Amino acid sequence: MNRLLENLSPSRLIRRFKEKDESYNIKFQMPGLSKDDVKITVEDRMLFIRGEHKDEEEGSDDDEFWSTATYGYYNTSLMLPEDAKVEEIKAEMKDGVLHVVIPKDETKKKQIKEVHVG
Are 90 and 101 in contact (CB under 8 A)? Predict the structure, then answer.
């Protein structure tokens, strides 16, 4: 699990990461981006999240012409834990928040055995 958190500073983790028995759940604040602006890929156990948004608007009032442009870019990557089910990762964008669910593979759970000290 610590590998999952490598690229997130502790101050950014508040309300962003939650581990459940069956999955890791992560939320990313991505204001101004829609689901069409976000691309998520997995390569060599790394989860890459990229987002880009461009908006241009032009108009005219009486004798004046005006133009505005905004640009936003988001890029982060996370090392997936050993027990992640890579093929079942899901994501949903809602109200500028990206929700990523990384299911756990129950067959890869850590085996913990208490050793008797004699």
Answer: yes
